[in-house]
Automatic annotation (TrEMBL):
Stated family: Belongs to the SusD family.
Stretches assigned to the SusD-like N-terminal domain: 120-255
UniProt keyword annotation of Cytoplasm present: no
Domain RagB/SusD: 371-516
Protein name, as recorded: RagB/SusD family nutrient uptake outer membrane protein
Superkingdom of the organism of origin: Bacteria
Record key words, sorted: Cell outer membrane, Membrane, Signal
Length: 527
């Protein structure tokens, strides 16, 4: 009889375990048994991928229930950067669950971002979900290795370990870029990252922040091992992980670390696969640009928090007169102005209603039974890999090769692609702008701005600012008007506001071993 292995699936937001029995008793109902590689695969599929969340709504205005924390994946990530601005219209009858109220403190870079504009506190569920996934993945990785001496299905064990390591790397990448400092080559070894736990056993200790460098080195090690384990294994769909996904994410991680030669090598591995860039010259109105069956989608999981955060193109907003109020977000004018004349993405990526420009890469609200739905909360596409490589080449002063990579993308984004004439620093800036245009609302912009700020070759200027306008309601006339703006300064001057605070429940459980920098109160600047 095979050895029965017990897995404890703990809510590891605590990042540790006290020695008393009460803690284990609390989670005893979550224990699982695994005896075979198939058991591990089922556990991986059931506990470790982001839960799919249907985003379809026929309502005229999306709402967010937050009494137990938000169920969608980190929607606030999309409203902190310069690609979003608020959209308000209609009467002020009920505001509590509208995106503007729930995410307003993130949009304003407030001292406590998990406090609504109406001063209601809500829980950060994402921290807990990330570490719960990681806790199970740690056990799966350990047991996959242990089972190799007992299990005939080595290929399945390799796939399970490869996917588990990819997912663990992906979750730590999100954690460190949300809750930690950006990777700076000269200071990463001492900059505050996030707690790092990769062992399968329960540790009787409290956890503190590991360095940014330590977290990134673990991410790299996991992705390198994932690529080895998954080599030659074809994933059943883009909802499962293959070696191409591991190399694609590795190219992103190396780019963040300024390891440009390694970024190029990983990108080359990913680009050698069977994926291709979708030609927008063949795109027709109403067609999804991003989907899980797209030829450029390498991996996708989770849901589409953008669709529940930004104004949706529902029937109530398709006519000339709004039939309901809206307290939401829209694509910023600053982003829209980045698209040159003839850029097909301006039409394909956005729906320009009579009221607002709406992110429209995936038209979730069009069809409830859409079989092509994609999770944009964790999405890897071939265009990103091309841009990763192009940026790395430009950083190494290999301008001609960088332009060759850009042409692979631009030829599919214009009827007649413009020539790229920029060189040196201007070329780096062009590639960064191209990254903004191509990858908007896929969770890249906030992270990119953070890494640009500390880049050793081409840092953002000290006068870089993000301004988010604020609107107020005039009851007598029942109209909204712009009454000022909030401003986020450059990272070097305002770095605490560029880092999402670790939730209080994790700090309290770890007896103060985890610390957050104090985020300043941010005052409205009157027009």
């Amino acid at each position: 009889m095979k050895k029965r292995v017990l897995i404890y699936i703990l809510s590891v937001f605590s990042l540790g375990c006290v020695s008393c029995g009460d803690f284990l008793d609390e989670y005893s109902q979550n224990q699982r048994y695994a005896e075979t590689a198939q058991d591990l695969d089922e556990l991986l599929r059931g506990e470790c991928f982001m839960a799919f969340q249907s985003s379809y709504s026929s309502n005229t205005q999306e709402t967010m229930s937050y009494s137990s924390g938000l169920t969608m994946n980190y929607p606030w990530l999309h409203v902190m950067d310069d690609d979003a601005e608020e959209f308000v219209s209609g009467g002020l009858t009920y505001t509590a669950n509208y995106p503007r109220n729930v995410l307003g403190a993130f949009y304003h870079w407030g001292a406590d971002p998990f406090l609504t504009l109406e001063n209601a506190q809500y829980k950060d569920n994402d921290w807990e979900k990330f570490y719960k996934h990681i806790g199970v993945l740690n056990s799966i990785i350990y047991m996959a290795d242990d089972f190799r001496s007992k299990e005939e299905d080595i290929e399945l064990l390799n796939r399970v370990e490869g996917e588990a390591r990819f997912l663990r790397a992906g979750y730590y990448f999100l954690l460190v870029n949300i809750y930690g400092m950006p990777y700076c080559k000269t200071t990463a070894s001492k900059d505050a990252g996030v707690p790092l736990k990769v062992t399968e056993h329960i540790e009787d200790k409290y956890f503190n922040r590991s360095s940014v460098e330590a977290v990134y080195l673990q991410i790299v090690a996991d992705l390198q091992r994932a690529a080895v384990c998954l080599k030659g294994i074809t994933p059943s769909s883009t909802l499962r992980v293959g070696a191409t996904a591991a190399n694609a994410l590795l190219s992103r991680v190396y780019l963040y670390m300024e390891n440009y030669e390694a970024c190029i090598a990983a990108a080359n591995e990913a680009m050698a696969g069977t994926y291709s860039v979708m030609d927008l010259n063949n795109w027709t109105s109403g067609q999804n640009v991003v989907s899980w069956t797209s030829p450029e989608t390498i991996f996708t999981q989770g849901g589409n928090s953008v669709i529940l955060t930004f104004l949706s193109y529902s029937s109530g907003w398709s006519g000339s007169t709004p039939i309901s109020q809206a307290l939401s977000f829209q694509a910023s004018e600053d982003l829209l102005q980045c698209y040159a004349a003839g850029d097909l993405r301006r039409t394909a990526f956005f729906k320009s209603s009579l009221h607002a420009a709406i992110p429209d890469k995936y038209k979730t609200w069009v069809d409830y039974n859409d079989t092509d739905e994609v999770g944009m909360d964790f999405l890897i596409r071939l265009p990103e890999v091309i841009l990763n490589k192009a940026e790395a080449l430009a950083m190494l002063n290999r301008d001609g090769e960088a332009k060759t990579e850009l042409e692979k993308l631009l030829s599919k984004r214009f009827a007649v692609a413009p020539s790229v004439t920029e060189t040196g620093e201007a070329l780096i800036d062009f590639i960064r702008d191209e990254r903004r245009r191509e990858l908007c609302f896929e969770g890249h912009r906030w992270f990119d701005l953070r890494r640009y700020a500390v880049n050793s070759i081409r840092p953002l200027p000290e006068n870089f600012r993000i301004r988010h306008q604020n609107n107020d309601y005039e009851a007598n006339s029942m109209t909204w008007y712009e009454n000022g703006y909030y401003e986020l300064n450059a990272y070097t001057q305002d770095h605490a506001a560029w880092i999402v605070p670790i939730p209080n429940y994790a700090i309290e459980f770890n007896r103060g071993e985890l610390q957050n920098e104090i985020r300043p109160n941010r005052e409205l600047i009157r027009n």
